[in-house]
Amino acid sequence: MRVVTFAGAHACGKTAVIMKAVQNLKEQGIHAAVMKLDCISSEDDKIYERVGIPTVKYLSGNTCPDHFFVQSIEQAYAWARERGADMLVTESAGLCGRCSPHIRDIPAVCVIDCLSGISAPFKIGPMLWYADYVVITKGDLVSPTEREIFLYNVKKANRKARVFFVNGLNGQGIYKLDQILQTTGEIQAITDKYLRFTMPAAVCTYCAGQTKVGGNDAVTRIKAGMLEE
């Protein structure tokens, strides 16, 4: 079965892009299932299911979604195989710029939108740096100059990735992504594979639920920032 990971910031258009791509693949005889990962709540699974796309939803709650993703991906992979899917598409929670849900030897897609600001590509970490493909959305909502600057900055942040614009509402540009997904190789198992980059750290009592600020109660390896005037 084929596996593709999608990652991107909150509200960048991941679901719209995935839905358009998966619907087109279905017309080509490739049936995909979606692993939807979010933090607090999500209705995206209902959006997928309304168009006939099998979906399993995970909510990480107060846990880092990357850690939750790694613990759940094997289960989602087995679920997709049982459903007879040809491809499993994973959609990250988009919690922060430090997310790192991409796996070695599995195609990785980063979705980023033009409305996030022209400097956004430099603020997003591993999910952009280590992506094989970068999909830029909402390009129709900014000026041509802003589009070009944004594209330049994306290519500067990741010089190896293939980059293209996609309109998640009408599907314009989605054929390029479909061509890539159609040529994705199959994998026999996801166990024992490795992430492309380390996950965000969870190393202190605040990570475990502490809420008191300051004092000697916090147990952490994180040092306070240096005050510069």
In brief, what are we looking at here?
With 229 residues, the protein is an alpha/beta fold. It is 31% helix and 17% strand.
The helical percent reads: 25-40%
Q: Unreliable runs, pLDDT <50, ≥5 residues?
A: none
Largest sheet geometry:
7 strands, parallel
Strand order of the largest sheet: 3-2-4-1-5-6-7
Shape: globular
CATH class: Alpha Beta
The CATH superfamily name is P-loop containing nucleotide triphosphate hydrolases
Describe the protein.
The chain is an alpha/beta fold and 229 residues long. The protein has a single domain, classed as P-loop containing nucleotide triphosphate hydrolases (Rossmann fold). The protein is 31% helix and 17% strand. It is built from seven helices and seven strands, in the order E-H-E-H-E-H-E-E-H-H-E-H-E-H. It has helices at residues 14-27, 44-50, 65-82, 120-123, 126-129, 144-157, 174-182, and strands spanning 2-8, 32-38, 55-59, 87-91, 108-113, 133-137, 162-165. The protein has a seven-stranded parallel sheet with strand order 3-2-4-1-5-6-7, with helices on both faces. Strand 2, helix 2 (44-50) and strand 3 (55-59) form a beta-alpha-beta unit. Helix 1 (14-27) packs across helix 7. The longest helix has 18 residues, at 65-82. The radius of gyration is 18 Å and the shape is globular. The mean pLDDT is 88.
